[in-house]
UniProtKB/TrEMBL annotation:
Chief localization: cytoplasm
Localization in the cell: Cytoplasm, Cytoskeleton, Spindle
A Pfam family recorded for this sequence: HAUS1
Source species: Arundo donax (Giant reed)
Signal sequence interval, chain numbering: none
One GO term (biological process): cell division
Listed name of the protein: AUGMIN subunit 1
One GO CC term on file: microtubule
Keywords on record: Cell cycle, Cell division, Coiled coil, Cytoplasm, Cytoskeleton, Microtubule, Mitosis
Top-level lineage group: Eukaryota
Family stated for the protein in its record: Belongs to the HAUS1 family.
Amino acid sequence: MLEKLKNDLEKQQMDQMADWQTKLVMMDSKEWQYILQVSNYKAMLNRVGYTPEINHGVLMETAEHKKDLERKTKPIADTLRSYQDLPPDKALAALAIEDKKRKYAAAEKYLEDVLQSVLTTPGL
């Protein structure tokens, strides 16, 4: 009886080992398949110019910052547009327009600088 149990146990162990061997071969081939796929995806990302600095989180943060800056510059742009129908005193009107244009250009430059610095900052 003990001998029969021992033989049954050995048979189960052999069957289990054979099953594991089969699964191991399959997992090994899957591992190489996945490694190849990852390599192909990385190559594709490199081809299209992807860098970690332009991942989704950074782009969303930059978009929010851009909206905030646009919201801040909108009143200046609206004021600048309102000066296009100024009264006949051309000297003062021209001076005011130039001042507003300078402020608007400075705000746009600031917006561009911030966006550029966010895109070029490593580690985001």
